[in-house]
Amino acid sequence: MKNSIFKSFRFEIVLYSLLSLVYTILSEAALFFCIYLVYHTLGGGETKLLNGQVGNSVNNNLMDNGVSLNRYQLNDMQNSAMNQSLPVGKGFIFVVVSIALIAGVVLFTTYFLLLTRKFGTYLEKIAGGISVISSGDFDTQIDINNDDEFGFIASKLNQMAEDIKLLIENERKSEYTKNELITSVAHDLRTPLTSIIGYLELVSDKDKLTPEVKQHYVEIAYSKSKRLEKLIEDLFAYTNFSFGEVTLELSEIDMVKFINQLLDEFYPSFQEYELEYEFNTNLTTASVIADGNLLARAFANLISNAIKYGKDGKSVKLKLTKVDNKIIVSVTNYGKLIPQKDLQNIFERFYRVEGSRSSETGGTGLGLAIAKSIIGMHGGTINVRSDFEGTVFEVALDEKKEGMER
């Protein structure tokens, strides 16, 4: 904590101590002044009368004895007589000093407690806040009244409560995600496996099926097996990406040639779904440093996703541009739009837009999550938007700089 010394608790204690001392001195001075006034008001006349009586007595005694004194000799004798008649001893002084000290201690303590009572009140608030937080109410916030050490403690307690609340929420979210993961994996594994078992049972009945039907069932079982294999591969891949077990084998890649090659590989899929495709760029070359195999997998997932969910739009478009040393690749399909509520979750594992879990379009639910992981490993970004201009997945990668080593 780096606060001004003038805002610290220690400075306030010193200040209030000095103020208490000043108030004590002033109070005692006022008290003794009042006593002095009362003493002289009530005892002044008696003192004068006593002086006169002593003087007359001395004078009369001397005259009776035939002795005559001048005025100065008479005054000396009067003062001597007064001192003998009103003695002020050391015991009296000790009593006065003792009373002054006791009164000073009492006054100083009283003033100090009054001036510092806010500290006690604030400590009670902090203690109450700690009790509430310890009971599980992490939304409680302790008021921060000032910038001293107590305010610092209160701010740290508030921060601690927020951190604990966040940890609990993350733990609950992690538990929910784990349960969702288990449910999704179980569903995606069971569905093709059930189909495979069912068709193989039908094929095993040799007497009721014709060879053509058996061949058809075998082909269906094989396609389901391939889907099951793809799911298992994606599960292993996503696990490896999540735990950082994948190392990049970097090399220079020309993204113009790279995209053209990928589109050639997907030509049969475009034909199967009766989709047209086009690739637009004004660049002759656009180099990045990347792992070619992993990058191919990421863009293959994006293109495959565009084919499956964009078949109603009859077209898929890819575009490559360069913006501020960034290579931007967009993949656009014109199929059914993605609701806005689903866009923020589209890259989550096993997340699927409502209605997408079908035999035709339902993939593993890991393709976009894997694509995002791969792009992130390359220091790039991937974003999505879906409106009346189509559903667009946009990838940004750093352009290869001159002199950059592979």
TrEMBL record:
Its EC number is 2.7.13.3. It is an enzyme of class 2 (transferase). It is a multi-pass membrane protein. Pfam families: HAMP, HATPase_c, HisKA. Residues 117-169 form the HAMP domain. It catalyses: ATP + protein L-histidine = ADP + protein N-phospho-L-histidine. One of its GO terms (molecular function) is phosphorelay sensor kinase activity. It comes from the Bacteria. Residues 184-401 form the Histidine kinase domain. GO terms for cellular component: plasma membrane. It is found in: Cell membrane. SMART domains: HAMP, HATPase_c, HisKA. The chain crosses the membrane at residues 12-39, 92-115. This is histidine kinase. It comes from Anaerocolumna sedimenticola. The lineage of its organism: Bacteria, Bacillati, Bacillota, Clostridia, Lachnospirales.
